[in-house]
Design a protein that fits this description.
single chain; 160 residues; Phage tail protein; 6-stranded antiparallel β-sheet; Phage_tail_completion_R; alpha+beta; 2 helices
């Protein structure tokens, strides 16, 4: 299995796709800052574990944003729509609302800095050659598989 895609990667790809034609891919950069690691160690079954949550400030920088050709409120709406549609439990983890700085560079271009707090699950699955030693076994980082029952048989005794 491959490593999971981060929420920052998802958001950045969404913005690149949504703004395609208005801004060049080379004009969007993204990185993580000021992270906090919260260890949890929840057993996910099938030998998979949710080992931690990684809470961080995601920074997305957009250069040469054509603020006269593309309404900047469209960008704000895209960010909000993505966060709402993603159904991440932002309130449960105390994630701040996005902070956005707009620096008008010329009559045609602006540089936009977006700071948004995100949280990623760090999960482990067994791998004999994995780099992570945990509970005496080897693992690698990936989404832990979760089995969901498709059928349930219920035997209720004492009811007629």
């Amino acid at each position: 299995m491959s490593q999971t895609i981060t929420q920052l990667q998802q958001l950045t790809e969404f913005l690149q796709t949504s703004l395609q034609g208005a801004i060049h891919t080379n004009n969007i950069d993204a990185w993580q800052e000021r992270g906090t690691l919260h260890g949890i160690g929840d057993d996910r079954g099938q030998d998979g574990y949710a080992i931690a949550k990684w809470k961080y400030t995601a920074v997305i920088a957009i250069e040469k944003f054509p603020h006269r050709r593309v309404n900047p409120y469209n960008l704000l709406a895209l960010i909000s729509a993505f966060l709402i549609d993603s159904d991440w439990e932002r309130g449960n983890f105390g994630l701040d609302d996005p902070a956005i700085e707009i620096d008008v560079v010329s009559s045609d271009d602006a540089t936009i800095m977006i700071d948004v707090q995100l949280i990623d699950d760090i999960e482990l699955i067994p791998n004999d050659n994995g780099p992570i030693l945990f509970n005496g076994a080897r693992y690698h980082v990936s989404l832990a598989p979760i089995s969901i029952a498709e059928d349930v048989d219920v035997d209720v005794k004492g009811q007629s």
